[in-house]
Amino acid sequence: MTSVVATNQTILVVGGGISGMTAALEAAETGKQVVLVEKNPYLGGRTVQLYRYFPKMCHPTCGLEINLRRLKANPRIQVLTMAEVTGISGDKGAYSVSVKLKPRYVNDNCTACGECGKAVKTEIDDAFNYNLGKIKAAYLPSSMAYPQRYVIDAAIVGTSDGEVAKAACKYNAVELDMQEEVVTLNAGAIVWATGWQPYDATKIVYYGYGRFPNVISNVEFERLADPHGPTGGKILRPSDGKEAKNVAFIQCAGSRDENHLRHCSRFCCMASLKQTHYVQEAFGDAGKSTIYYIDIRAIDRFEDFYQNVKSNPNVNFVKSKVARITEDKEGNPICNGVNVEGYKRYATAHDLVVLAVGMEPSVKGMDIPAEVMSDSSGFIMADPANAGIFGAGCATNALDVNRAVQSATAAALRAIQVVNKVARAEA
Amino acid sequence: MAETKTAAYICKGCEIGTRLDTAALVKAATKSGKMNLVREHDFLCSAEGVAMIKNDIDNEGVTHAALCACSRRAKTEAFNFPTIAMSRGNLREGVIWIRPDTDEARETTQEMAEDYVRMACAEVKAMTVPPGNQKTGSVKTLLVVGGGMSGMTSALESSKAGYKVVLVEKSGALGGWAAKLHKRVPTREPFKAPEDNGVADMAARIEADSNIKVYLNATIAKTDGAPGRFKVEIAVESGAIAQEDIGAIIQATGFTLYDANKLPEFAYGKTPNVVDQAGLEALAKAAAAEGKPICRPSDGQPVKSVVFVQCVGQRDASGTHLQYCSGFCCNTSIKQAMYFKDSNPDIDTVVLFTDLRTPGNGEDFYRAAQNKGVIFSKGVVSQVTPNGNSCTVKFKDLILNEDTEAQADLVVLATGMVPVSGVNIDAVAAAPAEAEAAVEGEAPKEVIATIAPESILNLTYRQGPDMPQFKHGFTDSHFICFPYETRRTGIYTAGPVRRPMDILQAQEDATGAAMKAIQAMENAGLGKAAHPRAGDLSFPTVRLEGCTQCKRCTVECPFGAIDEDEKRFPLFNESRCRRCGTCMGACPVRVISFENYSVNTVGAQIKAVDVPDEFSQKPRILILACENDAYPALDMAGMNRHDYDPYVRVIPIRCLGSVNTIWITDALNGGYDGVMLMGCKHGEDYQCHFVKGSELGRYRMSKVGDTLKGMNLETDRVRDLEVAITDMATLPQKINEYAALIKSFPPSPFKGF
Asked: Across the interface, do B515 and A75 touch by the CB < 8 Å criterion?
């Protein structure tokens, strides 16, 4: 049984992406007890699936390393991975929370030596790389994965490959009879930081995502550019593995659109501008990018970054909402539409189309087992009655990393306000 | 003090035991390492292994332990012994995982492992457990400078968490910019209409809050001290000085609008019918007070047509005006257009823009304005000309691609934000140097273009009276993952002084800053470091009798932690210190050290390496790798089994800035054949977590060339490599290339001395 020590002065943080980690660390570094719950087998969330950040073009794992070191050094945070909150009862200052823990089939003995991964034969979809590749069914999700422990996929449990993994482990770390369990814990305040999902691009039927292999999403493009991604950092298009030197970026794909997401996701313009750098980095002047846009939203000091990309002769800007994507015989996607500046029709072939899909809050449609206010787009709203559950990061608004961390830092204080009140009452 | 007892533990798990001769490792720890107790274990991180170590600590009196197993980044939960000094010898990621399992590699791999055991022993013997900063201050009162929306929010949120707040506002009332607003952009669903500005409610809450003490018409005359023990002098209206003991500070001094007079082509000042966004708010407030529609200033007639010009003096690539986008003005113009449309739908309201920027739910607000009949047109305005009681707005319509014009009763210019951030201390520091250069050069440069603004905080810090500025005068953090990273520990900026932002974001920002300020006070009281080495109890001590008063430490500290005392010796303010070790790297006489990280902890490791003689053809290359990015990259190279050269010996360091040149000269004098430094990117988009550490480290190393020449050594024997954490695949190759270069040189002539 997993044991969790928690009281009414404990802060529960739901979601172990950069927002959740930040909220947990800020609270713990102020002396509070924290339980951090993450549904993946590792921390870091969506940021660690990015190759680089705008505008510095630095690597998300750099910040993750610092956050992990803060975490390792802080005894006040208990991390539960492969865990989901299934029930919340009580009120602020005295919640009772049930958390479902899925079996990892690997216990704390694991040294991450990798023998189980070497031994098993079964391959599964590589979720970390948005299923763009395959991995062994006994795996470490990434080199930066924390906890640094392997995962045995449920698919091989009960098969001979499962036994192979168990036999390969010299440390009795593989436990194939591990069961799903539910733990109940107390918490005074809860920070809900469950982040976002990329909008489901198959719903934008006229862009052919899912039908045309060379139409991909912006988050998938990050994995293609990353040297630790499925192509070793080579920008190869999915249909034939050809180098994608002529890349189109379609902004507001499913965003600012009453039929899809009404809101603007804020980060996608900057993300596409950043991704033109990937094309330039990979192919030099042979790499061409075209950005189809409505408004370029390089807000506040990011304007420099936009001006810099704009001055690159290899990047072309077309003010147009692409009407439809078709495909030619060679599998090249063709963007069809009207350039609003001067009203010219175009039908332009590209090697690869990247849909800049926006963010949909993960809480949308999720059944948070408590009273939490959301707006009609699904983002958590601040509750004027100030209960003890607070949203943080992209669960509350369409935010870039910097602003998500800010939001999470603020949420940590709101949670502390509640548990400090409990502490004063109990003192 | 308890007697020192040293122990080394050699793990045999993860193939360490099969790939290496662990008996020889035990011998290395016993003979060369001179450890009192040496134990092997098949699986050191197991419950049993951990219990063994714990037992040695509790019952054998072990005070210093060298754990020779996996990387210091691995198994940290198991190897958690906070009461003793501990080092980690990296035999797994650092040795067996980066070496091929072949017969010919065995000997050099074993030598590598033995060296790492010796190094771990030497390091731990030079360490002590930090007792924590003794000169702490325990004041838990927060100072908030600025009583606008950001400052009020910081004050209220801190109070709610149980902290006392002193709020200082230079004007006679709370509310700042927000108080000037007729209404504010909506913050809640359905995001369709302007809302009350919210100032009166917040000001009333502050007045009723016994935790918050407000000074109006007051400024900060002097800020002295450090987190937990700031002494702040507040100049009040009467001219008197009030004293407050403060634990941490939030600067929320806001912004002013960019001066529209700098853009004569827009006729601001030439006709009262051209206003900036503040001017329009004033008109709207006055009109609301009188219950009248908004009127044209020139003749008092109700406005029938209005044009909003976006990005005036903003997003200016020419560098004449503001280069950035202020982020809030699109929504503000939409809101102001609604002032007209909501009162009379027949008023022509046109917004001329190039990119309309309404992120998030601002999109609903934008759509609501379109539904109310506000016209949005993509156009660039070139000129506004007064035309009787009207104005002519000339613009290029970007959709029709033609020059055209519009008539309007009123023109509103969206001019953007200029932060009120006080003195630009970097420019002031650079000024004397530039003036000196100008004397020698031909044309004297304009050193400080405008009259230096008044200081806001009046810090008594040696490095200047205000917060260091980032781009465009904003006092933002440079880090994406760490927006509250501050270069003055315990002082945080919030709201538009930090970055252009709207009210909603400013309130969120102010809450986050309050969190950080509270945390800084709490940790200062416990003698613990602030981010990124949060919780670190070590702090620098200086042996003043050896100090030559060269001032390098006081000048180079990236956080302004060190002042000079009246005798001109360095005065360390420990709770300002972030434990990066830049001072230690800077000190030419090596009198600065930390309990667990010093010239000696690294120097002893360098000396512990066995340097074979010149006939062995086994060179030794020292790698000093920054623990933040380079060391993890090396670890991950190991995890992915990328081999590299067996002659390198890697020592993790806190930051390149902490590298003292004595380590380089000691290594070369000791017969090492090459030294490689690995640190983060520096320059404009620097990634150093200690701001200037990697830059300073590199600067110092650039001076090592002379030393090398003096020693008759090739300058390539010291190499500086910029490393990112993702370089795990390319780094081994770069190490191997460097090793090949070193092998092409004759062996170091200093071997055997």
From this structure: no
Task: Out of B13, B508, B532, name the one closest to residue A111 (CB).
Answer: B13
Distance of alpha carbon A248 from alpha carbon B476, whole angstroms: 33
- With beta carbons under 8 A apart, name residues in chain A contacting B49: none
> Quick one: CATH architecture of B1-129?
3-Layer(aba) Sandwich (3.40)
Taking the Cβ of residue A34 and every Cβ of chain B, the question of whether any pair is shorter than 8 Å is answered with: no
Distance CA B540, CA A111 (A): 35
Q: Which tokens in the block code for residue B278?
A: 């503040």
* Cβ <8 Å between B325 and A295: no
CB B382 within 8 A of CB B394: yes
Which of A62, A304, A397 shows the shortest C-beta gap to B725?
A62
Q: What amino acid is encoded at B309 in this protein?
A: V
Instruction: Please name which of A379, A130, A391, A404 lies closest in space to residue A267, comparing C-alpha atoms.
Output: A404
Q: What is the DSSP string of B530-577?
A: PTTSTT-----EE-GGG-----HHHHH-TT--EEE-TTS-EEE-GGG-
CATH level 2 (architecture), domain A199-359: 3-Layer(bba) Sandwich (3.50)
Token pair for residue B582?
């830049």
User: Which of B474, B484, B685 minimises the CB distance to A56?
Assistant: B685
* CATH, domain range A10-102+180-195+362-426: 3.50.50.60
pLDDT digits (tens, 9 = 90+) for B196-224: 999 999 999 999 999 999 999 999 999 99
Beta strands in B291-340 (DSSP E): 305-309
Short-list B355, B308, B381, B365, CA closest to B331: B365
Encode pLDDT of B61-106 as tens digits: 999 999 999 999 999 999 999 999 999 999 999 999 999 999 999 9
Give residue limits of the domains in chain A: 10-102+180-195+362-426, 115-168, 199-359
Torsion of CA A382, A36, B634, B721, to 10 degrees: 20
Phi and psi at residue B260, to the nearest 5°? -65, -15
Spatial contact of A351 and A242, defined as CB atoms under 8 Å apart: yes
pLDDT at B432 over 70: no
Domain ranges of chain B: 1-129, 141-254+420-426+454-525, 257-417, 541-581, 611-753
Which amino acid, residue A280? Q
What pairs with residue A318 in β-bridges? A292
pLDDT (tens digit, 9 = 90+) per residue, B15-43? Answer: 999 999 999 999 999 999 999 999 999 99
How many degrees, rounded to 5, is the angle at CA B109 between CA B108 and CA B113?
A: 115
The CATH number of B541-581 is 3.30.70.20
Asked if B564 and B621 count as a contact pair (C-beta separation under 8 A), the reply is no
- Cα angle A35, A37, A39; round to 5: 170
